[in-house]
């Protein structure tokens, strides 16, 4: 899997997107001028960059000076997604879909986790890895399950993530899975120097892997250890690749970028449950629309007593822990 | 034409020199080669060739960066006492400080680059072209102030040297405001760097208001420590003269800065140990180790001992005025602050991590190689700049020493025919 992504030559199909690949005009600049400025810069710098950076697997001229993903005109998004699909299909030798399903109006996702049920079996961890195309080597896992001592309560300093899952649940212990809490006031988003990570209208915090510079400010900022870095080239055997992907979620990642749980954006935006919710053998995981009074997550909030993790930090998670029994 | 001659002159200055000078430059170039070798490996394999992992996601590079921002800031802050106490030669002190600042900032920028997962996406930081998250992100701020500070220093030094080269007096209307501006700029680069850590709610070790003042206090120790040694070297090897009194005065100021630094540290230690909340964990990791993990402990105590000894040396007029003890004190300060503001700051901030896991970080060979390369580059920049600046400022080298081929042809044609 050492296949490198191809490096389009200026003027070839890679450059075709260039005519509408404009950015925000400078103050006092007409859009047309902005376009030609960008084009000029692109081809001038692109040549140099391509020559010097050919060694960098994930470099693509098309990414140079592209507008922010949320401001990209639809036809450009289409081109980008098509390009990625071509690249992934070539790399993995099977048809890969990269969707860009948008957030639905009137939806704010929320998540509930029943600590009294969780047995710490880590099935969710592996279901997540399979669904979201995490690197198998080096291993990346978005869900961390903490084994805690009942006597001490929730105390991360005394917790253990490396317990033997064959022996769970161990007497005297309880289990607390942690992944991204999709904070309403996300400290990770504000630290990112290049707006490579942001909160979507339905509350999911996403990362644009084509924009992330890999500075890891967001990792230092996240209080829940939810962000993971591709320290090396991610290895994902083609047979294990989940070909149904979303641009802002589980599409294959290059090395040197940050990734995180997106509540299975590729599933939940088309009305399915996240993979972890589906797999949980004891039904400890609940998911739904916080704005829908009929949803299960709302039922839980009204009938159980929920709490959030590290509430003193004012991150305002949409991930609620509760004890159903 | 004048600019061309200036550049030619600079080139001439850096390409000629004693054997020792050449050996030094070759040595630095060799180290830079080592650094490039290390970086090439990291670039193709990814940051996995460092010891950083999800638990400790910043390490040696960012530690060095932080320390060097302090050096860059303090070098220029030295301008204040130079004016207040009317040291002769003020201009020379200012120039040396700014040259040091330029070299330190060069190293800072290289360390940040070395730490990036996607250095080729750096254009993202350019306003309008990229999508810089200004003013919300502190790293965006930092990239702006560091670059602005670099440009500011380059302008001042460039102007002073060019004018001296031309045998003219520098333009006070340009230089004074810029030098004055560089003082708050120096404070701000270090403050913004402190805020980069300070604003992270996930890391209690950094999320304390005392961090920025401590940064400034320790910078006022480490920056001058380098300059003091440099002053002595330069007055031995060049016509550059600086009075003993000036050196002693700087040493005295360093004693006060170190006192303040130690006082702030004591305040932090008291707060953490007496209140004994869960936040104590990180300081315990630094000073005593947690659950038998104690990689950092010997370093932490070394730093503390170095700082206290240096403080005592600089406090007592006798030891401050003896050049042997003075230089010892400088070395102690340099090591103490290097540990304290480098690894001693970054690593305990992330150990244990936000979910309580302890991953013991210590840099890999690749990281050490890259760091050695970056330091060598900084030293090289500084050496070359000093090599250019000293003769020009001393008036030993100017426009008349540079002849282009046209001048020579002109000289030949107008010269009276010799026998
Ligand atoms: S849990 Fe961490 S990654 Fe997720 S939104 Fe909150 S701060 Fe960001
Ligand atoms: S690592 Fe990527 S997403 Fe995180 S702060 Fe840096 S650029 Fe933004």
Write down the domain tally of chain A.
2
What is the H/E order of chain A? HHHEEHEEHEEHEEEHHEHEE
What ligands can be seen in this structure? iron/sulfur cluster
Coarse morphology of chain B: globular
Beta-strand residue fraction of chain A: 5-15%
Q: Name the chain pair whose interface involves the most residues.
A: A-B, 63 and 53 residues
Q: What is the CATH topology descriptor of the largest domain in chain A? A: Alpha-Beta Plaits
Low-confidence stretches of chain A: 1-29, 46-58
Q: If you compute it from the alpha carbons, what radius of gyration of chain A comes out, rounded to the nearest whole angstrom?
A: 21 Å
Give the biggest beta sheet of chain B: none
Instruction: Using the coordinates above, name the CATH class of the largest domain in chain A.
Output: Alpha Beta
Return the domain count of chain B: 2
Average of pLDDT of chain B = 91
Query: Helical amount among residues of chain A, as a percent range?
Result: 25-40%
Number of extended strands of chain A = 12
Q: How many E-type strands of chain B? A: 0
Global geometry of chain A:
globular
Helix content of chain B: over 70%
Strand-helix topology:
The complex is a heterodimer of chains A (325) and B (419).
Chain A: H1 13-16, H2 31-53, H3 74-92, E1 97-99, E2 109-114, H4 123-132, E3 144-149, E4 173-178, H5 187-191, E5 197-199, E6 205-207, H6 217-221, E7 227-229, E8 244-246, E9 258-260, H7 265-268, H8 275-279, E10 285-289, H9 296-303, E11 306-307, E12 319-322
Parallel strand pairs in A: 1-8, 2-12
Antiparallel strand pairs in A: 2-10, 3-4, 5-6, 7-9, 11-12
Chain B: H1 2-15, H2 19-45, H3 60-77, H4 79-84, H5 90-115, H6 138-165, H7 172-198, H8 211-237, H9 244-275, H10 280-287, H11 297-315, H12 317-321, H13 323-341, H14 343-350, H15 365-393, H16 405-414
Helix pairs in contact in B: 1-15, 2-15, 3-5, 3-7, 3-8, 3-14, 5-6, 5-15, 6-7, 7-8, 8-9, 8-13, 9-11, 10-14, 11-13, 13-14
Bound molecules: iron/sulfur cluster (SF4) (2 copies).
One iron/sulfur cluster (SF4) binds at residues 180-183, 186-188, 205, 222, 224, 226-227, 260, 315 of chain A.
């Amino acid at each position: 899997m050492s296949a490198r992504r191809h490096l389009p030559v200026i003027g070839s199909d890679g450059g075709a997107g260039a005519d509408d690949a404009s950015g925000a005009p400078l103050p006092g600049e007409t859009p047309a001028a902005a376009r030609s400025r960008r084009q000029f810069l692109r081809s001038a710098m692109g040549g140099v960059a391509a020559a010097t950076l050919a060694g960098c697997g994930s470099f693509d001229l098309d990414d140079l000076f592209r507008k922010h993903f949320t401001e990209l005109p639809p036809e450009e998004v289409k081109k980008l997604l098509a390009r990625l699909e071509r690249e992934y299909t070539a790399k993995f030798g099977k048809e890969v879909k990269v969707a860009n399903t948008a957030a639905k109006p009137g939806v704010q996702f929320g998540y509930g986790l029943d600590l009294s049920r969780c047995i710490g079996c880590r099935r969710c961890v592996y279901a997540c890895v399979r669904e979201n195309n995490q690197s198998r080597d080096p291993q990346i896992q978005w869900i961390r399950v903490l084994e805690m001592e009942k006597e001490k309560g929730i105390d991360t300093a005394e917790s253990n993530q490396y317990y033997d899952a064959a022996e769970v649940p161990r007497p005297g212990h309880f289990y607390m899975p942690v992944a991204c809490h999709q904070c309403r006031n996300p400290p990770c988003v504000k630290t990112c120097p290049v707006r490579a990570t942001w909160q979507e209208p339905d509350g999911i915090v996403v990362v644009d892997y084509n924009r992330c510079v890999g500075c890891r400010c967001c990792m230092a900022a996240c209080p829940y250890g939810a962000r993971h870095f591709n320290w090396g080239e991610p290895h994902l055997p083609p047979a294990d690749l989940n070909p149904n992907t979303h641009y802002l979620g589980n599409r294959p990642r290059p090395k040197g970028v940050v990734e995180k749980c997106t509540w299975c954006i590729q599933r939940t935006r088309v009305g399915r449950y996240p993979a972890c919710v589906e797999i949980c053998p004891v039904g400890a995981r609940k998911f739904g629309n916080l704005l829908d009074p009929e949803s299960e997550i709302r039922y839980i909030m009204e009938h159980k007593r929920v709490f959030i993790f590290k509430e003193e930090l004012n991150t305002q998670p949409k991930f609620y822990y509760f004890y159903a029994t | 034409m004048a600019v061309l001659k200036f550049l030619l002159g600079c080139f001439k200055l850096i390409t000629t020199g004693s054997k020792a000078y050449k050996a030094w430059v070759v040595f630095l170039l060799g180290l830079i080669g080592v650094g490039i070798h290390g970086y090439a490996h990291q670039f193709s394999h990814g940051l996995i060739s460092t010891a950083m992992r999800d638990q400790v996601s910043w390490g040696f590079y960012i530690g060095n960066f932080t320390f060097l921002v302090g050096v860059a800031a303090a070098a220029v802050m030295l301008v204040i006492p130079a004016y207040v106490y009317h040291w002769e030669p003020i201009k020379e002190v200012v120039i040396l400080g700014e040259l040091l600042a330029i070299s330190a900032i060069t190293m800072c920028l290289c360390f940040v680059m070395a730490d990036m997962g996607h250095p080729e996406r750096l254009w993202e930081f350019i306003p309008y072209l990229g999508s810089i998250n200004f003013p919300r992100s502190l790293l965006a701020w930092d990239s702006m102030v560091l670059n602005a500070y670099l440009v500011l220093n380059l302008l001042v030094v460039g102007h002073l040297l060019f004018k001296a080269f031309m045998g003219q007096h520098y333009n006070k209307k340009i230089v004074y405001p810029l030098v004055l501006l560089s003082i708050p700029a120096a404070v701000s680069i270090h403050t913004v760097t402190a805020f980069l850590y300070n604003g992270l709610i996930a890391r209690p070790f950094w999320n304390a208001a005392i961090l920025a003042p401590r940064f400034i206090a320790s910078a006022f120790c480490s920056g001058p420590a380098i300059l003091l040694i440099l002053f002595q070297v330069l007055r031995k090897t060049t016509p550059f003269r600086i009075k003993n009194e000036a050196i002693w005065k700087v040493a005295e100021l360093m004693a006060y800065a170190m006192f303040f630094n130690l006082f702030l540290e004591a305040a932090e230690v008291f707060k953490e140990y007496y209140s004994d909340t869960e936040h104590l964990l990180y300081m315990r990791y630094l000073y005593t180790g947690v659950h038998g993990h104690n990689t950092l402990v010997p370093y932490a105590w070394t730093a503390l001992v170095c700082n206290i000894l240096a403080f005592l040396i600089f406090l007592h007029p006798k030891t401050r005025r003896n050049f042997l003890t003075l230089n010892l004190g400088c070395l102690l300060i340099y090591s103490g602050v290097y540990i304290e503001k480098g690894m001693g700051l970054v690593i305990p901030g992330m150990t244990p991590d936000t979910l309580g896991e302890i991953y013991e970080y210590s840099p890999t060979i690749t990281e050490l190689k890259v760091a050695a390369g970056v330091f060598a580059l900084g030293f090289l920049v500084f050496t070359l700049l000093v090599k250019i600046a000293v003769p020009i400022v001393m008036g030993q080298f100017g426009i008349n020493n540079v002849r282009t081929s046209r001048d020579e042809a002109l000289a030949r044609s107008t010269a009276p025919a010799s026998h």
